[in-house]
Write a structure and sequence with these properties.
Elements lengths: L8 H17 L5 H8 L4 H13 L7 E5 L15 H5 L2 E5 L9 E6 L8 H14 E11 L4 E8 L2 E7 L2 H10 L3 E12 L2 E11 L1
Parallel strand pairs: 3-4
Antiparallel strand pairs: 1-2, 4-8, 5-6, 7-8
């Protein structure tokens, strides 16, 4: 049973906010949601509170993973290039989460890698490989166009897109140390029409 006597009022409020989000919708809040709800302007401020919860035993049996909101800080969009979005893709604290450790059985990323600048994709895949336990899986969708970078309006918000052709995506996954188990391009329907995405299932 958590010992709430060790917490400040703000830490207890954040703990309850995370718990209620998980109970009500099956997954935790985003960094933006925590920041907006408590008036915390910096993602690093959110991380400090999560680390405090861990140190005080509130995350001793649970791993809390808080992701950025689909790559954008503004309401209604996805795919921003703001420093806080690029620098804080996710915050992890709790049981089994250790810096540099192979802690996770799987990492899933749908429609997010095509909002990552191309020069950051290879190092990101390398870090994901290191997060995974032996035989851990990566399931991800990649963009398929040869697009160095484009910023414009999408679904009513300024959005950043960047992607490689499928052959390069596949090679980047292999170069990161993965064994590809399935690799195929499938089109989905978007407001502008069919949009092809490359789906890769790979094993560490």
């Amino acid at each position: 049973m958590p010992d709430f006597s060790k917490l400040t009022d703000r830490q207890r409020e954040i703990y309850e906010f995370i718990r209620k989000k998980i109970e009500s919708r099956g997954y935790g809040p985003t960094v933006r949601e925590i920041g907006e709800n408590f008036g915390i302007k910096s993602p690093n401020g959110v991380m400090c509170h999560l680390k405090a919860l861990e140190k005080k035993g509130l995350a001793s049996e649970t791993a809390i993973v808080v992701t950025a909101d689909h790559g954008h800080t503004g309401r209604g969009g996805h795919g921003g290039v703001e420093p806080e979005v690029l620098a804080v893709p996710l915050v992890m604290a709790g049981a089994g989460v250790r810096a540099g450790a192979s802690s996770f059985d799987a990492v899933v990323s749908f429609y997010a890698f095509n909002h990552v600048p191309r020069e950051l994709l290879a190092p990101l895949l390398g870090r994901i490989h290191d997060w995974l336990a032996p035989s851990g899986r990566l399931m991800a969708a990649f963009g398929t166009t040869d697009l160095e970078g484009w910023t414009g309006e999408f679904l009513g918000a300024t959005t950043f897109f960047s992607s490689f052709p499928p052959a390069i995506n596949s090679q980047l996954v292999v170069d990161a140390g993965f064994v590809v188990e399935r690799d195929e391009v499938i089109a989905i329907t978007e407001p502008e029409g069919p949009a092809p995405f490359q789906w890769i299932l790979a094993r560490r």
